[in-house]
From TrEMBL, chain A:
Alphabetical list of SUPFAM superfamilies matching this protein: CO dehydrogenase molybdoprotein N-domain-like, Molybdenum cofactor-binding domain
InterPro entries according to UniProt: Ald_Oxase/Xan_DH_a/b, Ald_Oxase/Xan_DH_a/b_sf, Ald_Oxase/xanthine_DH-like, AldOxase/xan_DH_MoCoBD1, AldOxase/xan_DH_MoCoBD2, AldOxase/xan_DH_Mopterin-bd_sf
Pfam families associated with the record: Ald_Xan_dh_C (PF01315), MoCoBD_1 (PF02738), MoCoBD_2 (PF20256)
Organism expressing this protein natively: Chitinophaga rhizophila
Lineage, opening ranks: Bacteria, Pseudomonadati, Bacteroidota, Chitinophagia, Chitinophagales
Protein name according to UniProt: Molybdopterin-dependent oxidoreductase
Automatic annotation (TrEMBL), chain B:
Pfam families xref list: CO_deh_flav_C, FAD_binding_5, Fer2, Fer2_2
PANTHER family per UniProt: XANTHINE DEHYDROGENASE (PTHR45444:SF3)
Keywords: FAD, Flavoprotein, Iron, Metal-binding, Oxidoreductase
SMART domains membership: CO_deh_flav_C
The species this protein was found in: Chitinophaga rhizophila
Protein name: FAD binding domain-containing protein
Residue span(s) of domain 2Fe-2S ferredoxin-type: 1-83
């Protein structure tokens, strides 16, 4: 089944935030962000801006009636800077004017005097100075201290992983409209309507029930609108509340890029120990997360880095520590994979380095150490592993050995171009790691004409969650899809929602819908059973018909519903689902945090132009653990999109801040995401169809985040291609692998055994001086 | 200003400097055209612009975020609403649906418009062509594979198009609404009624705007406040002609015009390869060569291209004209030997003869639709086995687009060989002064220029022993 929004999308009739028809008298907002990354505000000069004819008012922290605080996990983030600024772009004032143009013009007229304080952009520096968001966390399995002596080989190294701009094509925004009796309706481009509602409630200092947050759909989210949509909604709500006028703010791309956080850059140290059979015995890793200026979701992101620090491998002795480091960058936030990809990059780097030192193929080490069912992850959960099966099926279906032989042959015959191949296994846990968030609700109405309307807490952002929820209802009611309609997401219909995130939205909201629809069906069956003098178990609904003991009856769906309505049977249900079985003890760092894991393995092939340093990622071939996909069209789309986004992160997407904390890659002209020619010529996806029971909706495993991490293989395929040209090329584990890094590596002359001081390897810091 | 927007005649006295996108969305409330980047880099705001050129109706895609309303004057502007035939989907839309080529949907109208534009293209249809038509559309969700399939499906629908007027073919095949068949006549009538609406006030000191692709990125607000003289539509500034061995180009020639010019294609057989590295289809449809010159970017692709050809410019202040070699236009970073009231009217260069080899190289972070880290063009005229006249232009290695004169002087009179090329690379290092910026470190740009010089020679002299250059 195609995405149910397809037709409105292709005809341009889908409504996004900036498309909501504006009400007469609507005012337009624009935020003034700090020009300085760290300092104390001595004077804010608004006079020039206020004198512009269309400017209505400029709001500052002093105008906030409630608490000037929007932090989610930790209360450490003011909506508007009051005395201190902590990052470039931190909102200081909010202009409201009669036109967009006037609001933006006024922002340019605001002046602020700031006494500068030292700027930290490097997480290692922040950690050394004790600038931590939360205390460090350590995951332990076995005992690494005593394990090293059992290792035949011990290899150490470090990695620098850059961030990633979400670059949802629809920028952030909100539109707050006053309603009667001191309440607001807020349209928000958010993945977390409840988070917006909570933030607005705190800022205005009024209970949540006064604020309705509505989301129709997003033009992309990828995690960037999980918590960071709160700011714009809170600013619009503040102004709308104070002025009693509708206020709208759809960010300009450059505002969005400068003011919002991104995927976290990480620095990391690793130490890996193997026995002579290439079994990994011990692994130690230290992760320095660049959290930015406030917590946002960083502690949770850091936790997932630790959860995924051993990727798809079983390692008996593990010590992994994570520091969430406070720097003067915009608060970094959720991004597809949520810290997992960074953890995985580091273990893959450790394996790659070991392979290079030992002069063996990294795939040999990878394969030998894949986790098997019954083995524990460092956090105690016992694997029900599909990792070896995925690898074997990849070998069988795409012939890894033959592919490696072809690449070798190509390299022997070509001097200007070299190819590289890399394998990338992925294991990703599905559930919010914060157990309490794993719940959802669905409100299902069967109308008296037999049509069905559904509201859930899920936010549609292209991932097809509404299509899947519709499929659940159509299947349970056994009616055609066109009888079911998904309503927009609203905090009035569904309360206390978790954000649409963690790949779990279809599972959680799908299950809640399943529960609600099933409850209605039970009541309908009861009615039919009484009517036909059988038991409810004898009644089935098939293709819109009511079957009694498997035989057609005189009733169809319409008859069933109208009869139920006439008999005053409730045709609505509010279903609630909370993921069973999961638990976690954050003190001992042990538990069973995930409903299940998704597995897969990819083979990536790259070609490097050894004259120019340019490259292509030619092919990505994947065996992916779908469970039992309920919508292969949507799931394949998620995989292809995830892969290309992951490749972008690993290759061309370079977030650049200068040493003053100012974003240099601040527009689409300076921050490049894959275009159609950057996508691999081949993406082949083979399903690992498994029948094992799992907690996914209809056993169709979550698919949003895991495929992104296949893209990590692009970095290693490029590394291998460069090594085919220059076997001792100096290739520090720094992402992304831009054409610049490739060319510099191709013609590198330094001794690769040199351990680079950190300052020489960082890529996410300023070079634009 | 007067133009046709979809099926409606528009007459407006709004500021001609207003971006067309804002007019479409916030004045006309046509919300299908999306705002993505305001830089012409994502394609979410793509529209079609239909124009009568010597009585031929030509449709091109353009990014409406960078297009001043003034450049719509006298044309047919088509948004997604203008190609809808709801409740039916047109075949482009159907192809997108069939291939699951839409996820969040925000980039989708732009993609549909680019493919609709391809349906109105006059070149023979191919999958590669259909994909090239969407090279300016960024999608962050799908990973493009499904979009490629949709493009291929669109291409198959066009295989049997013949010499027929594309708009009529599209209407006949129910690809576009019926009103398209009347547009040509309506445009003819419209043009008859135009009478200097776009002229800036007599006493004003107008700013010049051609395609707008750089100005609307750099100073979108400032430009709207000024009186503007629009250059793109001026007949006198158009056209590519040959006079004996000389090629003469109007200042408003766009990159797409270059690509379609028989003269250029004949003398630069690899032109497609060069120009596909220059921005994207909608930007190439708007951006003019003179605009690229006066923007004075140190890495302007067309500037580098024409520097190597030793192009001469003709400038006018409205009263008198003068000529100036392109190589003398720049006096420093973004500083021009040009008075504010002057604009370029045309330029010319000697077409390369049989003894001259030309080549263009560009490397950027993303291979397509990106600004160069370093670009370079070379023109070498051989005198027997020896290098005669040679020019190497290089961008991204100094404050202005450079001609590597020392390197050229070193090369002159030598026989092409690997040792000599390496020495030339060393000479080049002495005359460049790259800086570190978002496009790469200075160290990288130095190495890259050297590599591009090697690439020039490897391309132009295939018998060279390549291994010795690595």
């Amino acid at each position: 089944m195609k995405n149910i929004d397809s037709i409105t999308h292709v005809s341009g009739t889908s409504v996004y935030l900036d498309d909501v028809p504006v009400i007469n008298g609507t005012l337009y907002g624009a935020a003034f962000g700090s020009p300085c990354a760290h300092g104390v505000i001595s004077e804010l000069i608004l006079d020039d801006a206020l004198q512009l004819p269309e400017v209505v008012r400029i709001f500052t922290a002093a105008d906030i009636p409630g608490h000037n605080e929007i932090g989610g996990i930790i209360k450490d983030e003011p909506l508007l800077a009051d005395t201190h600024v902590h990052f470039c772009g931190m909102p200081i004032a909010f202009v409201v004017a009669r036109s967009r143009e006037a609001a933006r013009a006024a922002v340019k007229k605001i002046r602020v005097k700031i006494t500068s304080l030292p700027v930290i952009t490097d997480p290692r520096e922040a950690q050394a100075k004790g600038e931590l968001i939360v205390p460090p966390r350590t995951f332990r399995l076995g005992n690494t201290d005593s394990a090293w002596e059992q290792c035949a080989y011990v290899i150490t190294g470090n990695a620098d992983i850059n961030g990633q701009e979400h670059l949802y094509i629809e920028t952030q925004g909100a539109y707050a409209i006053p309603q009667e009796n001191n309440s607001l309706r807020i349209y928000s481009s958010t993945q977390g309507p409840t988070a917006v509602q909570r933030a607005v409630s705190g800022i205005i200092g009024q209970p949540m029930h006064r604020f309705e947050v509505i989301v129709t759909r997003l033009g992309g989210g990828f995690g960037g609108k999980e918590d960071q949509a709160n700011t714009w909604a809170a600013l619009c709500a503040l102004a709308a509340w104070r002025l009693n006028k509708p206020v709208k703010y759809a960010l300009h791309r450059m505002e969005d890029m400068a003011m919002t956080g991104k995927r976290h850059p990480y620095a990391a140290d690793f130490k890996i120990g193997l026995d002579k059979d290439l079994k990994i015995l011990a692994y130690e890793a230290s992760f320095f997360q660049n959290a930015g200026a406030s917590a946002d979701l960083s502690p949770a992101v850091l936790a997932r880095t630790l959860f995924h620090c051993t990727n798809s491998y079983y390692i008996p002795h593990v010590t992994a520590t994570g520091w969430s480091c406070r720097t003067n960058l915009p608060p970094n936030t959720a991004f597809r994979g949520f810290g997992g990809p960074q953890g995985m990059f580091v273990i893959e780097a450790a394996i790659a380095k070991a392979a290079h030192v030992l002069q063996v193929d990294a795939a040999l080490i990878q394969r030998r150490n894949l986790i098997r069912s019954g083995q524990p992850f460092p956090y105690g959960q016992i694997a029900e592993s599909e990792a070896p099966l995925c690898w074997e099926k990849l070998e069988e279906r795409f012939d890894i050995t033959e592919q490696q032989r072809k690449v070798k042959q190509f390299n022997e015959n070509n001097s200007l171009f070299k190819k590289g191949i890399a394998l990338m296994p992925v294991c990703f846990g599905i559930s919010f790691t914060n157990t309490l968030m794993n719940n959802a609700r669905s409100l299902v109405h069967v109308y008296s004409d037999g049509s069905v309307g559904i509201s859930t807490g899920a936010v549609e952002m292209g991932q097809g969650v509404n299509t899947k929820i519709l499929q659940v209802a159509a299947q349970v009611f056994s009616i055609p899809a066109d009888k079911v309609r998904l309503h927009h997401t609203s905090t009035n219909t569904i309360a206390n929602t978790s954000p649409s995130a963690a790949s779990a939205t279809a599972d959680l909201n799908g299950k809640a819908t399943l529960i609600a629809c099933t409850a209605i069906v039970e009541r309908l069956k009861q009615l039919a059973a009484v009517t036909f003098a059988v038991t409810p178990a004898d009644i089935t609904l098939v293709n819109g018909h009511v079957l009694v003991n498997g035989l057609p009856s005189a009733w169809d769906w319409y008859q069933l519903v109208t009869t139920a309505f006439a008999k005053r049977i409730c045709l609505s249900e509010h279903g609630h689902y909370a993921t069973p079985q999961i638990h976690y003890d954050a003190v001992n760092e042990k538990g069973h945090p995930f409903a299940y894991h998704v597995y897969g393995t990819a083979m990536l092939e790259a070609t490097v132009d050894c004259i120019r340093g340019t490259y292509t990622i030619d092919a990505v071939k994947v065996v992916h653990d779908f469970g039992n996909s309920m919508n292969t069209d949507i799931d394949r789309g998620q995989i292809e999109g995830g892969i290309v986004q992951g490749i972008g992160w690993m290759t061309m997407e370079e977030v650049l801040y200068d040493r003053d904390g100012k974003l240099r890659s601040n527009a689409l002209s300076t921050y490049k995401v894959p275009d159609i020619y950057a996508a691999p010529a081949t993406i082949a996806i083979e399903a690992l169809q498994t029948d094992r029971d799992n907690l996914a909706v209809f056993r169709s495993k979550a698919v949003g985040e895991p495929p992104l991490m296949y893209g990590i293989g692009a970095w290693f395929a490029l590394q291998n291609a460069v090594r085919a040209f220059h076997p001792n090329a100096d290739i520090p584990f720094v992402t992304p692998m831009t054409p610049e890094k490739v060319l510099m590596a191709l013609y590198s002359t330094t001794n690769p055994e040199t351990n680079h001081p950190h300052a020489e390897t960082v890529s996410h810091l300023g070079i634009d001086q | 200003m007067k133009f046709i927007l979809n099926n409606n005649n528009i007459a407006t006295s709004l500021s001609p400097g207003m971006p067309l996108l804002d007019f479409i969305r916030y004045q006309q409330h046509l919300m299908g055209t999306k705002t993505g980047c305001n830089e012409g880099d994502c394609g979410a705001c793509t529209v079609l612009t239909g124009e009568l050129k010597q009585d031929v109706l030509v449709y091109r895609t353009m990014t409406s975020c960078l297009m001043p309303l003034g450049n719509a004057h006298g044309k047919h502007i088509v948004t997604i609403e203008g190609i809808n035939m709801l409740p039916a989907l047109n075949p482009v839309q159907q192809a997108m649906v069939d291939n699951c080529a839409t996820q969040c949907g925000f980039c989708t109208p732009g993609l549909v418009m680019s493919l609709a534009g391809y349906c109105l293209d006059r070149t023979p249809a191919s999958t590669e062509g259909a994909i090239a038509a969407i090279d300016g559309n960024i999608c962050r969700c799908t990973g493009y594979k499904s979009i490629e399939k949709a493009a291929a499906q669109v291409a198959t629908l066009l295989t049997d198009k013949n010499e027929q007027e594309p708009a009529l073919f599209a209407v006949e095949r129910q690809m576009l609404p019926n009103y398209f068949s009347g547009i040509k006549d309506r445009l003819k009538c419209l043009i008859m009624t135009l009478n200097g609406e776009l002229n800036p006030p007599a006493e004003s000191k107008p700013r010049f705007v051609a395609g707008g692709t750089d100005l609307y990125v750099q100073q979108p607000e400032a430009i709207q406040e000024h009186p503007i003289r629009f250059l793109l539509g001026q007949e006198l500034l158009k056209g590519i002609t040959q006079e004996e061995g000389r090629c003469i180009l109007g200042a408003s020639v766009t990159v797409s015009d270059l690509l379609e010019s028989a003269i250029m294609r004949k003398h630069f057989p690899a032109l497609d390869n060069y120009l596909q590295l220059v921005s994207s289809t909608p930007i190439r449809n708007m951006a003019t060569i003179a605009g690229n010159f006066v923007n004075a970017s140190p890495i302007g692709d067309m500037t580098i291209f024409f520097l190597a050809l030793d192009t001469t410019l003709e400038l006018s202040d409205g009263q008198s004209t003068r000529t100036l070699p392109l190589r003398e236009l720049y006096t420093g970073y973004k500083k021009l030997r040009k008075r504010p009231e002057e604009y370029i009217t045309r330029c010319w260069f000697e077409l390369p003869g049989p003894d001259t080899g030309f080549h263009f190289e560009k490397v950027s972070k993303r291979q397509h639709l990106d600004i160069a880290s370093v670009n370079s063009a070379i023109s070498i005229t051989m005198a027997g086995n020896l290098i005669g006249n040679v020019r190497i232009a290089a961008g991204g290695v100094g404050p202005v687009p450079m001609l590597l004169t020392e390197t050229a002087a070193f090369l002159k009179g030598q026989a092409p060989g690997t040792a000599m090329i390496k020495q030339a690379c060393a000479v080049a290092q002495l005359e460049i002064t790259p800086i570190s910026d978002a496009r790469g470190t200075a160290e990288y740009k130095r190495l890259l220029l050297q590599q591009l010089i090697k690439a020039h020679f490897i391309t132009l002299f295939p018998s060279l022993q390549v291994e010795l250059l690595l």
